[in-house]
Design goal:
Structural class: mainly beta
Number of strands: 14
Number of domains: 2
Helix content: under 10%
Oligomer: single chain
Radius of gyration: 21 Å
Largest sheet: 3 strands, antiparallel
Length: 173
């Protein structure tokens, strides 16, 4: 059995698992997609290891995804106005690279903030810089004062508290 995406006016409206013969009997435009394809690479099932298989249409189709006939590729809706579509992978690239890679994983969670065009690190609870009462045990060897001063990963940077949220800019200098 294979996965198939129903495409209406270039947008995925349904994804099913079926035999090709059954899909041929269903009205509409159905395009095969591979659950094991991401960024133009084919991966072993339930793994991040490339297995040499055929990467089908750049990415697995999801509801609301675009099917681009020219690229013969599926890609997700644009997550933020500042992000651009990578032509090789058909994945969206932020204007600032994600701040970590698998070799340098520190356990921090990063989120994109479109209003400052940068990644921010979630530091826990509100009031961290004000009274130091928040739990920061997951930030190894850092005090609330160091965080408030902008010491992130050993480098000092500009801090931007985003209204009353729990985030701080991680732009390194």
């Amino acid at each position: 059995m294979s996965h198939f995406a129903k495409v209406v006016d270039g947008i995925v409206t349904n994804v099913i698992v079926a035999e090709q013969e059954a899909v041929d009997e269903i009205p509409g435009e159905w395009i095969q997609t591979s659950y094991n394809t991401s960024g133009g690479k084919h991966y072993a099932p339930n793994s991040r290891d490339e297995d040499g298989g055929v990467a089908l249409r750049k990415n697995y189709a999801g509801l609301g995804y675009t099917y681009d006939k020219t690229r013969d590729a599926f890609y997700s809706p644009q997550p933020f106005p500042s992000w651009t579509l990578n032509e090789d992978t058909c994945l969206w690239d932020a204007p600032v690279p994600y701040p970590r890679n698998e070799e340098n994983y520190d356990g921090n969670e990063f989120l994109w903030k479109e209003d400052i065009l940068n990644w921010v690190i979630k530091i826990g609870q509100r009031g961290l810089a004000d009274d130091g009462s928040a739990d920061t045990s997951w930030i190894e060897d850092m005090t609330p004062e160091q965080i408030a001063q902008g010491k992130i990963d050993g480098n000092y940077s500009d801090i931007r508290w985003i209204s009353d949220t729990e985030y701080v800019s991680i732009t390194k200098k």
